[in-house]
Amino acid sequence: MMKKEITLILTVMAVLMMASCGNKTKGGEAESDSTQVDSLMVADSVASGSKDLWTTEAVEAQIRACFAEVNQMAADDAIDITLLDLKYCSEDFLELKEKLYKKVRESKGQLMFDGDEGYHWVPDIGTPMVIDSVKSELLTGDQAQAEVWLKDKRGKRGYLEMTLYLENGAWKVHNWIDDDVYPFGALFNWMQNFYDDPTCNAEEHEESDLNNYAE
Predict the structure, then answer these.
(1) Of 16, 39, 103, 147, which residue is 20 to 30 A from 46 by alpha carbon distance?
(2) Secondary structure (3-state) at 96
(3) Beta carbons of 165 and 93 less than 8 angstroms apart
(4) 157-167 β-sheet, strand order
(5) How far apart are CA 42 and CA 67, in angstroms?
(6) How far does the chain reach from its first CA to its final CA, in angstroms?
(7) Helix (H) or strand (E) holding 133
(8) In sequence order, what are the residues at sequence separation of 6 or more whose Cβ sits closer than 8 angstroms to the Cβ of residue 73?
């Protein structure tokens, strides 16, 4: 009689353990499904955010924000070009700028590169500036191009053409294009060429200055 009771008890315990394992498995599957759904929701949210930024309105809003900060700095008598670059320029631009100035520093006076001395943020006009007009175009590969006309309170106008990259949830300025201002036609190109071959760049810059003087 005792053996039958023990056998019955063991059988009941085995059934209960199997049921418990089954519940854990179901719960684990439910948790896994929930995690997958959450991941899909996050992915959809990120994609939706990128889609919202992939508009000319978003590009132009970022450009307006850039020059609003320039005006604020000007009002405080401290236009910080380095800070503006850090906040509004692309990762590639900042990486090249850092490598270039490091090379200049390590040359111990043999190389000199002053860049455009802030022209890309304040194009030879007074402050405060207003954006007279801005026109942008979306390109492929999370890139855009914009043309900006600025005007100061005296009515003097300045023109900037720039390319922008969509990075980390914001449009960042990657390059300024102007054949009349920059050797090699653009600021990024000028920096890159100087970094690759300072001697060649110096000759190109000198030739550009002579041509401008002749005109």
Answers:
(1) 147
(2) helix
(3) no
(4) 129-138, 143-152, 157-167, 170-176
(5) 33
(6) 118
(7) strand 129-138
(8) 79, 80, 84
Q: How many CA atoms lie within 13 A of 84 on its CB side?
A: 23
Report the C-alpha gap between 169 and 117 in whole angstroms.
28
Indicate if the pLDDT at residue 144 is higher than 50: yes
How far is the CA of 35 from the CAs of 40, 45, 48, 126, in angstroms? 9, 15, 20, 55
pLDDT of residue 36: 34
- Report which of 126, 124, 128, 146 is spatially closest to residue 137, judged by C-alpha positions: 146
Q: Letter for the amino acid at 11?
A: T
Q: Are 202 and 97 in contact (CB under 8 A)?
A: no
Write out the H or E segment, with its range, that includes residue 158.
strand 157-167
In the chain, where does DSSP find H-type helix? 2-53, 56-75, 81-88, 91-106, 187-196, 198-214
**pLDDT band, very low/low/confident/very high, at 49 (cuts 50, 70, 90):** low
At 177 the three-state DSSP class reads strand
Question: Per-residue pLDDT for 156 more than 70?
Answer: yes
Radius of gyration of the chain (CA): 30
The whole-model pTM stands at 0.71
Q: Cα–Cα distance between 194 and 205 in angstroms, integer? A: 10
Under CATH, which number does the domain 56-214 receive? 3.10.450
Closest to 151 measured CA to CA, from 119, 133, 135, 129: 129
The helix/strand/coil state of 175 is: strand
Q: Where are the domains of the chain?
A: 1-53, 56-214
